[in-house]
Amino acid sequence: MKAAVMRAAKQPLEVEDIQISKPGPHEVLLRTEACGVCHSDLHMIDGAIPVPLPTVLGHEPAGIVEQVGDQVGYVKPGDRVVACLSVFCGACEFCLSGRPNLCGGASTARAPEAPPRLSKDGETIHQFTHLSAFAEQMLVHENAVVKIQDEIPLDRACLIGCGVTTGVGAALNTARVEAGSSVCVIGCGGVGLSVIQGASIAGAGRIIAVDRVSWKLDLAASLGATDGVDASESDPVMAVRELTGGGVDYAFEAIGLKETGEQAFHMIKAGGMAVIIGVYGLGVNIELPGLAFLQGKRVVGSMMGSNRFRIDIPRYADFYLDGRLKLDEMISARRKLGEINDAFDAMRKVEVARSVITF
Ligand SMILES: [Zn+2]
Ligand SMILES: [Zn+2]
To answer: Which residue in the list 39, 43, 130, 266 is annotated as catalytic?
Structure first.
């Protein structure tokens, strides 16, 4: 099967023919139908976060079940699924305490001595986030998939697998935004736009979008933002504090920079919550004024929207089907696997909210 292989950081991906193993007892072979191009993949390509190489990136897919292992009862061939990197083991402290998004799924991977799921002529190709979705097929643990409604097209459903679950979940699960509260979102890419939509679904009173790109602010407004702050023109902290008379209840950081993480904290009022969603490069630290914690301010990390994805993803698909969650508007481009490097270039140039690779 064809896959976009990453062999070195800071190099283009190469579409190669590689081999995929047969499903083990709890594994599922998927035919990939669509995969969103998420910004986190770019961190690996640019070398900000080291990963074992060679690998196949891609972690926002939807597909169709082709084969299942003999112990799999949850899905059968022909089922339409979204696959999520929050694969859960079902038995660890995090899974058993209702936080399967923190599981990490280590025990769902194949043992080191077992044949690898992906390989090329005897060489192991490391699976990325238990998925490796920039490929025509995926071999995943059954706990990495969720069945999805027939009515939602898979080239839109895929977005829910990472960006939408991360953003909508940050608003609904991590922060539990209340109706009428004030919200600010720094960064209006796929995740930030999803936070805006989640806050809107929760009934937030004021939703302030912050970005440096004017077309993203326009898109944010069409998805539920009540105000926009162009951070290339003014100090976004001052602007948000002025708009709200002293700060917001919830500030979400969806970029992954020291500067914007600190800005999120400075945008909240006393008792407010800053939610850090962005993926930070290895070694990046955030500095905060310790005295401000006397005001009861909270800083919270949000991993994949604090999801329990087999519950959340079908709910978010329902939001799409009833018109409350807009996915079509978030897709700027559809591309084929052979154009994968163009999709990342467009992301670097900030030309797209989300690209989707279709197969
Ligand atoms: Zn992602
Ligand atoms: Zn677990």
So the answer is: 43
Among 35, 39, 40, 355, the one annotated catalytic: 40
Q: Which residues have a Cβ under 8 Å from the Cβ of 203 and sit 6 or more positions away?
A: 178, 179, 180
* Selection from 32, 106, 105, 108 nearest residue 66 by Cα: 32
Active site residue 92: no
Asked if 103 is an active-site residue, the reply is no
| Per-residue pLDDT tens over the stretch 284-329 | 999 999 999 999 999 999 999 999 999 999 999 999 999 999 999 9
Instruction: Specify burial of residue 233 (Cβ count, 10 A radius: 0-12, 13-18, 19+).
Output: exposed
Catalytic residue status for 43: yes
Please check whether residue 330 is in contact with residue 216, taking contact to mean a CB–CB distance below 8 angstroms: no
3-state helix, strand, coil in the chain (%, to 5): 35, 25, 40
Look at the alpha carbons of 22, 28, 33, 34 in this order and tell me if their dihedral is positive or negative.
Answer: negative
Q: What angle do CA 264, 349, 317 make, to 5 degrees?
A: 65
CATH top-level class of 176-301: alpha beta
Task: Round to whole Å and give the CA distance between 130 and 107.
Answer: 11
| pLDDT tens track for 107-132 | 999 998 999 999 999 999 999 999 99
The structural domains of the chain, with segments of one domain joined by +, span 2-161+306-358, 176-301
The torsion angle over the Cα atoms of residues 307, 310, 315 and 320, rounded to 10 degrees, is: 90
- For the CA of 88, the nearest ligand: 2
Report the candidate in 67, 70, 89 with the shortest Cα–Cα distance to residue 78: 67
CATH number of 2-161+306-358: 3.90.180.10
CA distances (Å), origin 37, targets 112, 169, 236, 288: 29, 19, 28, 32
| pTM for this entry | 0.96
